[in-house]
Amino acid sequence: MRKAILLTASLAVVLMAGACKEKGPKQVVIATLDPGHFHAALVQKTSYPQVSQDVYVYSNPGADLQEHLAKIEAYNTRAENPTSWNEIVYTGPDFLEKMISDGKANVMVTAGNNLKKTEYIKKTLAAGINVLADKPMAINPENFEMLKECFRIANQKNVLLYDIMTERHEITTILQRELSLIPEIYGQQEKGTPENPGITMESVHHFYKEVSGKPNIRPAWFYDVEQQGEAIVDVTTHLVDLVQWQCYPDQILSPSDVKITSARHWPTPLTLAQFQASTGLDSYPEFLMKDVRDGVLEVYQNGEINYQLKGLNASVTALWNYQAPEGGGDTHYCEMRGTKANVTIRQTAEQNWKPELYIEAVNPAAGYEDALNAKFAELEKNYPGIKLEKMADNAWHVFVPDSYRNGHEAHFGQVTENFLKYFDEGKLPDWEQPNMITKYYTTTEAYKIANSQ
């Protein structure tokens, strides 16, 4: 009898230990696949309790890999809040197959050359490995068809496929969305027309920039739209995502909700000296010569999409210049038009190159300002420290404390934390997957139209 009691007690301890283990977050082991873009490193700029410090890197050898490892080492050795990543590196042409056969990781992170990214994602998912991917996950209509298959595989294998949408974590964008959902302030969303859209966005980026305090050396393939993708399928991924996220929050969308009214693209010219400064190379490689005219490289990294989403007219534009003005950087503009007010983000020299949020009433009725102040006070409870500053009749600036402005690089950690929560829960929000499909349908359909003209 005593032996039976001991066995039962031991079994109870095992069951209790198992139950306790199940309550904690699931352990994550990351594999970084062929890192060629600094976004791969930014996922590791901070540490996460449930993520192993051992990170397995599978890649071709070369400058891209060395740049990635140098950034991780900089995070590990910085004076403030250093990380403790242990990068375990495998190099060779069979890096994808090696990652799969090793079976070390349960999450693959990819940010780099987009030419084969969709194929990498498909094979990784088929092996039962979750994927956290930098945008874009598809750069042409053929990729989009493969991406739809990727989502089917993810569902079959019960794993997650999620892209890194950092702009949802910018505080002015969050507040713009919040304000647009308050009828007393915003009214109802204007549907607009193709000539005067209900929502307009423009994003300006630069080929030569600093990342984490150092000049960012770009690989030569970044300037080949066949490998990187054009702006109309790259940066616009963020903008189309924001149109969906801001105007139809938590709603399931589908490609049938989208109608492209027009799309166009045009190049940014880069001199050899500019190419050299941003890549560290002496000359254009052979694969870029198809885009060189009279010694100048023409990169199709400007694009505009005008489209309707469930009847809402939207316009998104992505622009690439060589270098930002003195003191400036990448910029974001967004105007949302409501029946009572327009809510606009501006980021120019006038705003000292910081995104600032404005409310401009449209023919306000009596009592509008009182209603605005009352509703803003309720919003302030959720975002302590924000203030409403009157600029002129019917115009206000939303003051945002610097404590909320953690910057683009920090947003990668916020996206990763969201992904880890979904990983632990074993599912994405119901709207995320169909809306990713809708987003990439929009960008690749626009690409098709722009390239047919």
Which helices and strands, and how do they pair?
Elements: H1 2-23, E1 30-33, H2 39-42, E2 54-59, H3 63-77, E3 86-91, H4 95-102, E4 107-110, H5 117-126, E5 130-133, H6 141-157, E6 161-163, H7 171-180, H8 183-186, E7 199-208, E8 210-211, E9 214-215, H9 225-228, H10 236-247, E10 258-270, H11 272-279, E11 292-293, E12 296-309, E13 312-323, E14 331-337, E15 341-346, E16 356-361, H12 368-382, E17 387-392, E18 395-399, H13 408-425, H14 432-450
Parallel strand pairs: 1-2, 1-4, 2-3, 4-5, 5-6, 7-13
Antiparallel strand pairs: 7-14, 8-9, 10-12, 11-12, 12-13, 14-15, 15-16, 16-18, 17-18
How many strands, which pairing sense, and closed or not: the largest β-sheet?
Answer: 10 strands, mixed
Number of helices: 14
Annotation, overall tally of beta strands: 18
Report the CATH architecture of the largest domain.
Answer: 2-Layer Sandwich
Shape estimate: globular
**Alpha-carbon Rg, integer:** 24 Å
Number of domains as seen in the coordinates: 2
Within CATH, the superfamily of the largest domain carries the name Dihydrodipicolinate Reductase, domain 2
3D architecture notes:
37% of the residues lie in helices and 25% in strands. The protein is of the alpha/beta class and 453 residues long. It folds into two domains: 28-163, 3-Layer(aba) Sandwich (Rossmann fold); 168-414, Dihydrodipicolinate Reductase, domain 2, CATH 3.30.360.10. It is built from 14 helices and 18 strands. Strands 7, 10, 11, 12, 13, 14, 15, 16, 17 and 18 form a ten-stranded mixed beta sheet that branches. A six-stranded parallel beta sheet has the order 3-2-1-4-5-6, sandwiched between helices.
